[in-house]
Amino acid sequence: MKRILLALFVIGVARGEPIELVKDGKSSAYILVRAEAGRWERQAAQDLAIVVRKMTGASLPVVNRQQEGFPIVVGDLARPRLAEQLERVIPKQPVLRSDAIALAVDSQGLYLAGSNDDSHYFAVAELMRRWGCRWYLPTDLGECIPQQTSLSLEPFSYSYAPPFEVRGYWISWNGDRTGYEEFAHRNFMNNASVPAGHAIGTYVKEVQKKLGRFEVSSPAAAEALADLIGPDYSTGKSLSLSIEDGEVSSATESDRELSGHLFDKYFQTEALADSYLLFYNRVCQRLHQLFPDSQARLGFLAYINLTLPPQRKIEADRALVAYLAAIDTDPNHAFTDAQWSSRADYWGALRGWVKAMHGRVIIYDYDQSMLVWRDLPNPSHQVLSREIKEYARLGLLGFSTESRNAIATTFLNLYFRGQLYWNPDLDVANELKLFYPKFFGPAATPMENYWSAIYKVWNDTQVTEHEYFVIPAIYTRELSQNLATQLAQAGQVSQEPYHSRLEFVRSSWSILDGVTRMQERVGLGDYAGATLIGRETLAFREELTKQSGIFTTYKSFPESGPAFWPGEVDYFEEMARLAQRKIRQSPILWGFRADPEDHGIWQGWAGQSQGWGSIRTDLYLQAQRPETRPGYAWYRWDVELEPAQLQGVHLLFPGLFNESWLYLNGHLQAHRPQKELWWRNDYRFLWDVPLQDLHSGRNSLVVRTKVPLHFAGIFRPPFLYRP
What is the pLDDT of residues 268-288, one digit of tens each? Predict the structure, then answer.
């Protein structure tokens, strides 16, 4: 039976005069909370007093006993008054928890409570939101509290329970945690979880010692693992049985047979969900036999080999909770848009897992801060807002978002995530209209134009991939110059906090502009110029980081190698040294032929001069042709050489994805192997090919390259040089 958790509203409005909490900066109200209040219950009372003071100047005492005046009762002391309201909306059988809230106000008092310690805070957050308060970013920089001298409420009652039990994000890559917990709670995130980190490797080694081998399909392996974790499980401690961060490479023939010898086209590996889910079920059955009273949960990642859901009729044990981590599916489009098949595949996988798990699925969500790595804005609300209601209807447990908390990249992502996880009916467009004047004050109009331009390019993009290779397909020189115009119109704002917020945007634009200039030079083969601009722009990033540690991540994380921005600039410097001996820079446009059915090698395309279209070599294939089907693609450059240019020549590809073959004048010259998944290769994506048998006059250089579902093709123009 499918578990359904839907948002429930019970709203009643009682007739009566408005109740004045503050008038002309003065108040007789006080905040009542129990002396033994939990952490967030106590924080809710304290933050409410702070907000009222910031809004109106009035100081409301926080007390533990009734006194003269109008009581604002927070937490457990308010629950008797709100018990019936809460009872109406609390789900009858939550899997992990329920975060219901209730609010009521009449002439006797204002009552705010939830179904647990976190929810007491959510009830207060709901009230503060109704007053117009917003926390768009962590720390005081993101706090927007309206200023007024009086504060009143119409009599009302309200109760609500969100559709998702798990709602939150965690900060990875040593990101700055300043203000993290407060920001999360002010935006209704509970950061609930079941352990699901990579964990099974250690257990596998112990089972191998005992049995001589580890076979997922073996009942003996499941029993041995259950015995290993039994002491912890017996105490009620939840545990992770997630596979390691990489595909399972030790599957036996029996494991593969049980899983139907299926293949995951995204992770380019065997799919083993059936054998693993049966294995997890056997572990649970053994644990139930030994410890029938334990309420512990076992979490696991539906990831790599387990992304494709089980195909056999297997129902997960009640103790299991799955985290679906579909990292290599399109993050930039909604599955509600049938044009983007990769996202539809993800939706199908999610539905399959929800069915097998009876709803006990948490989306292990990668906030786009994980996907660009260059401290450029990477919004995601435009996708989530289109999908969130379908998630609620599906009845999954919720979301656990991995984010670097690098605000120069995420900006409003985490705010909208929290709000949409809580209320899928949130009007994002209206929220954005409120945001600009609240956050930017006198610069609201140019800043609305600035951010709307960024949101539009992401909303309209044809890009279905992720990481920094997508940047030239989204952030163009034209866009950067348009944004510069909006910044100029914003002018100088001296009033705080608007001044600091505008300076953040100016610094962010300096990075964006620098990266687009750097990419422009790369497209022209000017690696010396690209290196110079890259170093300059990295200095801009240093200035941004000095403004606040939450803006970037790299200070506490060792950026090493060409996958990271400093390493990419080092790589450009290496290319600049080689280019000093350049014989010929290739044009940006090369000849092109798509070959999804692999006809070209049979029909001799390498030796044909007819039938070629054109394609850019400064941008990967799918960004130019989103209709590209997996298979192969062919690139062609006809280059004129003089006799003095024929000896000792190399063709250098500074950026070429995937396995490839080079033909010279119709004949195979070289083969370049690559691992199937692009992110398992050296991030330089370099191919340096010595050329034999060049002749004076025109020479045809033809590349046949493999096209997977992911990045493909040439993305940095090649050049001829003599080492």
Answer: 899 999 999 999 999 999 999
Is it true that 8-161 and 581-721 share their CATH fold?
A: no
Provide CB contacts within 8 A for 633, sequence distance 6+: 592, 593, 594, 595, 621, 704, 705, 707, 712, 713
pLDDT reported for residue 250? 65
| Ramachandran angles phi, psi of 370, nearest 5° | -85, -10
- Which residues, at least 6 apart from 46, have a Cβ–Cβ distance to it below 8 Å? 62
How far is 126 from 158, CA to CA, in rounded Å? 10
**Coil, helix or strand at residue 39:** helix
Q: Quick one: CA dihedral 518, 522, 524, 527, positive or negative?
A: positive
What are the structural domain ranges in the chain? 8-161, 200-296, 581-721
- What confidence tens digit (pLDDT) does each residue in 25-77 have? 999 999 999 999 999 999 999 999 999 999 999 999 999 999 999 999 999 99
Q: Are 90 and 100 a contacting pair, CB within 8 Å?
A: yes
Confidence band of 15 (pLDDT split at 50, 70, 90): low
* Structure tokens belonging to residue 530: 């690209």
Torsion over CA: 194, 197, 201, 202 (sign):
negative
The confidence score (pLDDT) of residue 371 equals: 64
Q: What is the CATH number of domain 581-721?
A: 2.60.120.260
pLDDT tens for each residue of 565-589: 999 999 999 999 999 999 999 999 9
Residues 6+ apart with CB under 8 A from 550: 137, 138, 139, 141, 175, 176, 178, 179, 405, 406, 407
Q: Which of 546, 542, 536 is nearest to 569 (CA)?
A: 536
| DSSP string across 112-151 | EEESSHHHHHHHHHHHHHHTT-EE-SSSGGGEE----S-E
Q: Which CATH architecture fits 8-161?
A: 2-Layer Sandwich (3.30)
Q: Out of 123-137, 202-216, 231-245, 324-338, which region has the weakest mean confidence (pLDDT)?
A: 324-338
Q: Give me the residue label for tokens 């950061």.
A: 191
Average pLDDT over every residue of 88-116:
96
User: Could you tell me which residues come within 8 angstroms of residue 391 by beta carbon, excluding any fewer than 6 positions away?
Assistant: 164, 363, 424
What residue has token string 């890009």?
463
Threshold 0.90, pTM exceeds:
yes
Q: What is the largest CA-CA distance in the chain?
A: 100
What's the length of the chain? Answer: 723
Asked whether the beta carbons of 633 and 713 are under 8 A apart, the reply is yes
Please say whether the beta carbons of 222 and 207 come within 8 A. Answer: no
Q: How many CB atoms lie within 10 A of CB 576?
A: 18
Return the amino acid letter for 660. Answer: S
**146, 149, 154, 160 alpha-carbon torsion, rounded to 10°:** 30
CA pair distance 359, 3, nearest whole angstrom = 6
Average pLDDT over residues 364-388: 88
Q: What percentage of the chain exceeds 90 in pLDDT?
A: 90
Contact 413, 380 (CB under 8 A): yes
Who contacts 89 (Cβ-Cβ below 8 Å, separation ≥6)? 8, 9, 10, 100, 102, 159, 160, 161
